[in-house]
Design a protein that fits this description.
The structure is a single chain. The protein has helices at about 15-25, 40-45, 65-75, 90-100, 110-130, 135-150, 165-175, 195-200, 220, 235-250, 275-280, 285-290, 310-320, 330-340, 345-360, 370-375, 400-415, 420-425, 430-440, and strands at about 5-10, 30-35, 50-55, 80-85, 100-105, 155-160, 185, 200-205, 215, 225-230, 250, 260, 265-270, 295-300, 330, 365. With about 450 residues, it is α/β, with parallel strands linked by helices. The chain has 4 domains: about 5-130, Rossmann fold (3-Layer(aba) Sandwich), CATH 3.40.50.2300; about 150-300, 3-Layer(aba) Sandwich (Rossmann fold), CATH 3.40.50.300; about 305-375, Helicase, Ruva Protein, domain 3; about 395-454, Orthogonal Bundle (Arc Repressor Mutant, subunit A), CATH 1.10.10.60. A 5-stranded parallel β-sheet has the order 2-1-3-4-5, with helices on both faces. It has a 5-stranded parallel β-sheet with strand order 7-10-13-6-14. Helix 17 (about 400-415) packs across helix 18 (about 420-425) and helix 18 (about 420-425) packs across helix 19. The chain starts with 6 loop residues before the first strand and ends in a 14-residue tail after the last helix.
């Protein structure tokens, strides 16, 4: 994304300083606005969203820290960089603790200024590859990830099934200081609870039947890295206690051992379950809930960001495309996809497009290629049912090769001798159909022998 598509609000009570910064950043292609005070900046951010706020620390009236607190309270995803006089190290620490993404020392150096801004905003641009979407909810999510990634605090990702919680966890790791270390995923609902303790914390040889050798748990394996605990609401109460200790003390014990092992792991947890209700029902520990919920991130359902559907469709169809031809979609079909509520969210959209691309006879997906539940929701007439087929053997019998040859000819003629499409009709791979065409010596009059698709 080019700088012209990123906006920066400059906040400084010295007009000369504002004018200089405005001139430098505008010349670099950024969209800029200026405010003479924290109070004015707050009014402007309520009327317009800025990708980044660049504010002086000491100003008449409210300070830059006051502005940072107010901006973060209104929108935790807002990116803020502070400018401060040399030696204000305690103020810098407080700013970073409150959520500033970086700071600049005065007097400002032009190259340092541009480098810090480029670094902050280029990381935001990079998130566009991790998480597809340009809608306001997605832009807020990406900025939140960028701010949270630099921290070691535990993150709790909430959202409906299929919204992309693991993608968020991976983005947090990829943009963190731990990116060079390991990222491990544990689905707490997919592992038998009797084995999950060993999976997370490890075990000693002979700790239980089948423990023929010692094993490191994932907390040890992920040391200095990130551990993603998906479906955290499925943990039993006993495991919740061990997890709480690992988070609070940074130490684990293998099953069958009394030895304490120190670990340095950043935990990202995720769930679509109502943890607050589970706490009230005493099926989820209240202390663990608060320890996990240090930084909550909520993923919006797809129905709340319908403007992102065209981008998602383009992305998923590009993944399905093979060879020189790329799948596209008709405007009518895209309109139906945008109107659908997507109870399964992004995962359901990707699955629907995979199915449509597989069954589509050409390279353009139309209404007739959409899954029946989506067509029905749009009030479209159901596609005609495929006629049942039953081959009746003639009394005198028939060669199987003759039947095979006849079906291949029909498929090739139906697709105008397009081997890829004919293979789909017959449920064969391209190579298998190519072999059979050669076997029967079949080719359209005037055609060269069949060959690989370009």
């Amino acid at each position: 994304m080019t700088p012209t598509k990123r906006s920066i609000l400059i906040v400084d009570d010295e007009q000369n300083q504002r004018d200089i910064l405005d001139m430098i950043l505008s010349a670099e292609g950024y969209r800029t606005a200026t405010a003479p005070s924290a109070e004015a900046a707050l009014r402007m951010t309520k009327a317009e969203r800025f990708d980044l706020v660049l504010t002086d620390l000491k100003m008449g009236g409210q300070s830059g820290l006051d502005l940072l607190r107010a901006l973060t309270q209104a929108d935790a995803s807002q990116l803020v960089i502070l400018m401060t006089a040399h030696g204000s190290i305690e103020s810098v620490k407080e700013a970073l603790r409150l959520g500033a993404v970086d700071y600049l020392e005065k007097p400002l150096d032009r190259e340092r200024l541009l480098a810090v801004l480029t670094q902050a905003l280029s990381r935001l641009d990079a998130l566009d590859d991790d998480l597809v979407g340009a809608s306001e909810p997605m832009q807020k999510l990406k900025k939140m990830i960028l701010k949270v990634a630099v921290s070691d605090e535990t993150v709790l990702v909430r959202g409906e099934s299929g919204t992309g919680k693991e993608l968020v966890a991976r983005a947090l790791h990829r943009h963190s200081p731990r990116a060079a270390a390991v990222f491990h995923v544990v689905n707490c609902a997919a592992i038998n609870e009797n084995l999950l303790e060993s999976e997370l914390f490890g075990h000693e040889k002979g700790a239980f039947t089948g423990a023929v050798a010692e094993k490191k748990g994932l907390f040890e394996v992920a040391d200095r890295g990130t551990l993603f605990l998906d479906e955290i609401g499925e943990l039993n109460v006993a495991l919740q206690a061990k997890l709480l200790r690992a988070l609070q003390e940074g130490e684990v014990q293998r099953v069958g051992s009394t030895k304490v092992i120190k670990v340095d792991v950043r935990v990202v947890a995720a769930t679509n379950r109502p943890l607050e209700a589970m706490v009230a029902a005493k099926t989820f520990r209240e202390d663990l809930y608060y320890r996990l919920n240090v930084i909550p991130i909520h993923l919006p359902p797809l129905r709340d960001r319908r403007d992102d559907i065209p981008l998602l469709v383009e992305c998923f169809l590009a993944r399905q495309s093979r060879g020189p031809n790329h799948y596209t979609i008709t405007p009518a079909a895209l309109q139906v996809l945008q109107a659908y509520d997507w109870p399964g969210n992004v995962r359901q959209l990707e699955s629907a497009l995979k199915r449509a691309a597989l069954l589509c006879e050409g390279d353009m997906l139309g209404l007739e290629d959409l899954p029946v539940e989506i067509r029905q929701a749009a009030g479209l007439p159901e596609a005609e049912a495929a006629p049942s087929f039953q081959f009746r053997l003639p009394p005198e019998g028939i060669s199987f090769e003759e039947v095979e040859r006849s079906l291949i000819i029909q498929a090739m003629e139906k697709t105008d001798w397009n081997i890829t499409r004919a293979a789909k009709l017959l449920g064969l791979t391209f190579r298998t159909l190519q072999y059979r065409l050669e076997k029967f010596g079949l080719r359209r009059s005037g055609d060269a022998p069949v060959s690989e698709p370009e």
